Amino acid sequence: MQPILNSHLNELDEDIFHHFGFTTKSFDFKQKFGDVKFVCVCGSSNRIHNFAISMAKLSGIQLPVENIAGSHARFVLYKVDHILFADHGIGIPSTLILMHEMTKLLHYAGCKDVLFIRLGTCGGLGVKPGTLVMSDRCVNTKLEPYNELCILGKPVRRQTKVDLNAVNELKKLSENLSLQCSVVVGGTITANDFYEEQGRLDGAICSFSQEEKLAYLKSAYDHGIRNLEMEGTAITSHCNSTGHRAILVCVAVVNRLENDQVTISADDFKLFEQLPGKLVGEYLKRNSGLIAR
Amino acid sequence: MQPILNSHLNELDEDIFHHFGFTTKSFDFKQKFGDVKFVCVCGSSNRIHNFAISMAKLSGIQLPVENIAGSHARFVLYKVDHILFADHGIGIPSTLILMHEMTKLLHYAGCKDVLFIRLGTCGGLGVKPGTLVMSDRCVNTKLEPYNELCILGKPVRRQTKVDLNAVNELKKLSENLSLQCSVVVGGTITANDFYEEQGRLDGAICSFSQEEKLAYLKSAYDHGIRNLEMEGTAITSHCNSTGHRAILVCVAVVNRLENDQVTISADDFKLFEQLPGKLVGEYLKRNSGLIAR
Question: Alpha-carbon distance A157 to B71, whole Å?
Answer without folding.
Answer: 38
